[in-house]
Every structure is written in structure tokens, then in C-alpha cells.
Amino acid sequence: MSLFEQEKSVSPAVTNEAFDRRVEFNLYHPADWRRSPACALGLLMLSLASTGCQRSPDPQLVAKFQAAQTAFDQADSSEEFLRVASLFQEIQNTEIVNGHLFYNLGNAYMKAGRRGRAIACYRQALRYRPRDPYVKANLQFGLGSGTPLRGRRKVVDFVLFWQDWIGYRTKFQLAASVGAFALLGGLAGRFFAARRLFYGLSWGLLAVTLILAGSAGYDWVRFEWVERGVIVSDQVEARKGNSESYAPAFNQPLAEGTEFLLLESRGDWRRIRIEGSGEGWIESQWAVTY
Q: Which candidate in 3, 18, 51, 156 could, as Cys together with 137 as Cys, close a disulfide (CB 3.0–4.6 Å)?
């Protein structure tokens, strides 16, 4: 457990054991992630620890997190938890990309009664912590017991069956690390007698690198190019066009927490697709996208 991770007990205000209100934090800047392949390669070649790729925590951000953590522990109303969420949001606005931060932000929104925003945060946390049982449990709590965590699986999801075993960032780091070992194996084959052994090992590691790179690339497409969202208000009427003059697109209004795929944006309107229901237009103020 890192310096900024702490466990909290289940909130007595929520009887469902699925909701866990622990607060944890681990600073990480997206600029480090973009450099991590080259950094990992260099560190492996120099036999240094890969953890050197990450920056040391910013004292100001640490202080902000501590303030948010203290406020979370002392919060006792929806308004107070919303203020806590705004503190975590300030940290996120500094371009911190971190599964811990999304998880904490989701917990604050959930305690504030903003279920739709909490679901969006938990979904983003799962990108970086796909096997975390607490994130999954809290997301399931937000969605409701009758809603599955995953929608319809595509063929590529069956081919890349390990996609949800490894985090988004970790896939890139593993691809870089295995690729570095493949390079070292190839170089070793040029200078040592067991050339065939080293070359065989190098080709095998190269194949693994390509598989990991393809897996990371698939994540990059579905996370960076495909935009999703969640309805954050109750009884939101979806229309057949980008105006209130159009007829309703569905038989009943959309409930808070309804997830969708964003297809198009026109001014203040968003064309969305809901799995199993169809397409419609909603005003942007009633949803959050990620």
C-alpha cells in the first residue's frame, strides 16, 4: 500500500456492503505515461528500477488531497460531500490521471446522492484498476443489482480475453518492458555462443510484445476515441431530434444512471445510443461524458 492509500470502513449510512467509502490516493501525471515506453526501455537497458519513470508527488497536490480526505471524513450531508467532490475535482483538473482519484471522486459523489456522476467516475477508475473488487462493488451498487457491469461483448473482446485483467497504463508499460527484453535477447545472440537460443527467445518475446501492443492499442481506441456518458438527472426526456419540438425518442424518460454511447454533438444537444433501446437526442446539461 502506497503512502497515499488508506482504508476506511464501510459507511454506516449505507447498509449495502457493496458501497465502500475508503479514501486512497496515488499521484500520477499523464505526461509520465506518454513517456513510459521510452523510459522503461532505457531503465531496462541500464538495469534500473522501472519505478523511476514516475514523478515524485507534488507537495501542493498532496496537501490538497489531505484536505479532501479530512473533509470526506468529517462530511455529514449531501452538500458537504459535494464540497469534497469539488476538492477532488480540483486535483483532477491539474491533469492527474489516476484510478485512485476517480475512485475517491466517485465515492464523494455517491455519498452526495449524485449517482450518475459516481457511475461515470467508477467507470473511469476501472480503466486503470480493472480487477479492483472495491471499484467493481461500488459501481455495481450505483448501477443496481439488476444491471450487469459489462454490456454486450464484441468478437474482439473474446479474442483479447485478458483485456480486463490488466490496467490501461500497465498494458503500455508491459509492452515496452517485454519489447526491451526482446531487444536485449537479439543483441545477446550477436555476442554469445548460444545464438539460436537467444534469437528464439527474442522472437518469442517480440510476439508477446506485439500482442500486448495490440491490446493496449485497442484500449487506446475505445478509451480515447470512443466517448461514453451517463445521465445525471432523473426523468430526462430524449428527443428524436436536437430540439424540444421533436417527439420523445423512447417510451419513457431516461433515469439517472442510464449509460450511453455518444454519437454526435450539435450545440447543446447530444445524440446518444443506449444499448438495447436505440438512439435519441438529449441536452448536454443532463449528462456527463468521458
A: 18
